[in-house]
Amino acid sequence: MPEIAPIVGQPVAYGMALAMAVLFVFAVYIGRYPLTLAHEGAHMLALVATLQPIKDWEIQDNADGATSWKTEPGWLAFVLAAFVGYAGPPLLGLGGAALIADGNAWGVLILTLVLCILALVPARKWGLAFLVPLLIVLGVGWTLIDGTPDVRAAVAVGMVWYLLLGGLVMTFLHFGKSVDSGLLAKKTLIPRFVWSVIWVVIGLVCLIKGGALLLARS
């Protein structure tokens, strides 16, 4: 098991929180590409969990994304897949924070590596959907193999903060106008505004709880 420096309540946890906050304040457009990967990845995980075959997925030049399926999912599978897109990144971030708080920061790196490798399979080849997870696989792979314990700690907690902060930012950027909220409104008759509020609440709760786990001092 790779050695990783202590994280919870340490300067690295505070420093990476600040770094990710600066990223989303001053470079939100660039910062959205891996976030779109997490968003579309959540769609795909929901489809896999409901036994729906995935056709492919893509990331567009403007950082928007789309996931296609081979056959139209049933009502429940459709609603679940549409809902988890915006809920997925902050929930994944909260799960990563819980792993780090439990002393399993290496698990964050391993899971990131595995999920990104799986995302390469249905990606539209040679596009951003292939390039973004490939770059993450190479970066995380190098971190695990040749990174110092401090570098591994910074990468692990940085990715968690990225998901916690970025997931919330994404809900505000697309508040009331996302494709997913429109699809959910048609399928459930619940207004898209309500779905957007739910996603904001999930993002806020995950950020508060995840931040508490990462910044807590023993």
Automatic annotation (TrEMBL):
<feature type="transmembrane region" description="Helical">
    <location>
        <begin position="12"/>
        <end position="30"/>
    </location>
</feature>
<feature type="transmembrane region" description="Helical">
    <location>
        <begin position="193"/>
        <end position="216"/>
    </location>
</feature>
<protein>
    <submittedName>
        <fullName>Peptidase M50B-like protein</fullName>
    </submittedName>
</protein>
<keyword id="KW-0472">Membrane</keyword>
<feature type="transmembrane region" description="Helical">
    <location>
        <begin position="75"/>
        <end position="99"/>
    </location>
</feature>
<dbReference type="InterPro" id="IPR049500">
    <property type="entry name" value="Peptidase_M50B-like"/>
</dbReference>
<feature type="transmembrane region" description="Helical">
    <location>
        <begin position="151"/>
        <end position="173"/>
    </location>
</feature>
<feature type="transmembrane region" description="Helical">
    <location>
        <begin position="128"/>
        <end position="145"/>
    </location>
</feature>
<dbReference type="Pfam" id="PF13398">
    <property type="entry name" value="Peptidase_M50B"/>
</dbReference>
<keyword id="KW-0812">Transmembrane</keyword>
<keyword id="KW-1133">Transmembrane helix</keyword>
<feature type="transmembrane region" description="Helical">
    <location>
        <begin position="105"/>
        <end position="121"/>
    </location>
</feature>
